[in-house]
Amino acid sequence: VDHVLGGFLAAEHLIKLGCRNVSFVRRPNSASTVEARIAGARSAFQRHGVPLPPDFVQTGEPGTASFMRNLTAGKRVDAL
User: Fold this and answer.
1) pLDDT tens digits along 22-40
2) Which uninterrupted H or E stretch holds 73?
3) In 1-50, at which residue ranges do the beta strands (DSSP E only) sit?
4) Is 25 within 8 Å of 60 (Cβ atoms)?
5) Which residues fall within 8 angstroms of residue 18, CB to CB, at 6 or more apart?
6) Cβ–Cβ contacts within 10 Å for residue 22, how many?
7) CA pseudo-torsion sign 14, 61, 53, 70
8) DSSP secondary structure code for residue 68 in this structure
C-alpha cells in the first residue's frame, strides 16, 4: 500500500471539492503509515498552491467530543 499516494489522493479530492480549511487528525502514537499519509496530503496542497495552516496536523482522540469541539471552535473548517 502506498500511504503517501493515499494521503495525496484524499487531499486532492478535498481540494477539488473546494475545501481550503482542512486539518489532518491523528491519534497519539499513530503508526508510521499515518506520517506517510500526512506527507502525501501536504504534497497535494503544495502542488495545487493551497496554503496549509501551521496547525494542519492535530493530535488527539477523534472520538472525544471535547477534542473535536476544540478543533472547530471559532474556526471555519471544511474538512477533518
Assistant:
1) 999 999 999 999 999 999 9
2) none
3) 24-26
4) yes
5) 78
6) 19
7) positive
8) H
